[in-house]
Amino acid sequence: MNVYVDTDAVIQWEKGDFDLPAWLEQRPDDTAMVPATVWRQLLYGTFAWEAQRAQKRRRMLAALQMPVASFSRRHAARAAQIAADLKQAPIGFADCQIAASAIEDHSELLTFNQEHFARVTGLRLAKARR
Amino acid sequence: MQLSIRRCPPEVHQALKKRAGANRRSLNSEALTWLEREAQRESPITARDLAMNLRRARKLMSEAEHKAFAQDIEQGVRLMRRERLR
């Protein structure tokens, strides 16, 4: 099984509230990636600040060697469908894209944002506790 | 390096020809572009390897810096939520 790691799982790890490496080690032979949209969110903090701080963060993210899954036509179509399905209570542009990536690539999503992602039909959520 | 492809399905050949024409490239250049793009596509790593990378990367910044980074990522997420297509 492939796991897509959501931004909030990385945020919780950065804060020290979630042991992401330990969680991954419980399923060592699974594979892992981040969707392109998550990568964009992670990179924000490397562009928004002064050079020295940004450079340190870029080095840290590079050290993760986290593979990034591409976003293509079929992902876009699925994201559009999710947005339409949830138009009464939208989950936002980014979360539609993240959910679409996981569904189309037959991956589980590791996230703590149950409020948004549990409402997406066909999306498999990985179990994790903080 | 020379590389030849056998039994190329006609629909793939047609698609390649069409794209080569649209991009004003030879069939060979177009095929190379396709192969290069595929070769650059990222593939997943094992959870075990990612866990190892995470532990290694953790040491590159102090705990305070990691927490500050988390806040900036959250800010990026919030900004993205407010983005509108115009």
Question: Short description, anyone?
Answer:
With 130 residues, chain A is of the alpha/beta class. In chain A, 54% of the residues lie in helices and 13% in strands. At the A-B interface, helix 1, helix 2, strand 2, helix 3 and helix 4 of A face strand 1, helix 3 and helix 4 of B.
Strand-pairing-aware structural class of chain A: alpha/beta
Describe the oligomeric state of these chains in a short phrase: heterodimer
Distance between the terminal alpha carbons of chain B, to the nearest Å? 48 Å
β-sheet strand percentage of chain B: under 5%
CATH superfamily of chain A: 5'-nuclease
Secondary-structure element order of chain A, N to C: EHHEHHEHHEHE
Write structural notes for this entry:
The complex is a heterodimer of chains A (130) and B (86). With 130 residues, chain A is of the alpha/beta class. Chain A has one domain: 5'-nuclease (Rossmann fold). Chain A is 54% helix and 13% strand. Chain A contains seven helices and five strands. Chain A has helices spanning 7-15, 20-25, 36-47, 51-64, 73-85, 93-104, 114-117; strands at residues 2-5, 31-35, 68-69, 107-110, 124-125. A five-stranded parallel beta sheet of chain A has the order 3-2-1-4-5. In chain A, strand 4, helix 7 and strand 5 form a beta-alpha-beta unit. In chain A, helix 3 runs antiparallel to helix 4 (51-64) and helix 5 (73-85) crosses helix 6. The longest helix of chain A is centred in the middle third of the chain and has 14 residues, at 51-64. Chain A starts with a strand and ends in a 5-residue tail after the last strand. Chain B is mainly alpha-helical and 86 residues long. Chain B is built from four helices and one strand. Chain B has helices spanning 10-22, 27-40, 47-58, 63-82; one strand at residues 45-46. In chain B, helix 1 (10-22) packs across helix 2. The longest helix of chain B has 20 residues, at 63-82. Classes of the chains: A alpha/beta (130), B mainly alpha (86). Chain A binds chain B through residues 2-3, 7-8, 10-16, 20-22, 24-25, 27-33, 40-45, 48-49, 56-57, 59-61, 63-70, 92-94, and chain B through 41-57, 60-61, 63, 65-67, 69-70, 72-77, 79-81, 83. Strand 2 (31-35) of chain A pairs antiparallel with strand 1 of chain B.
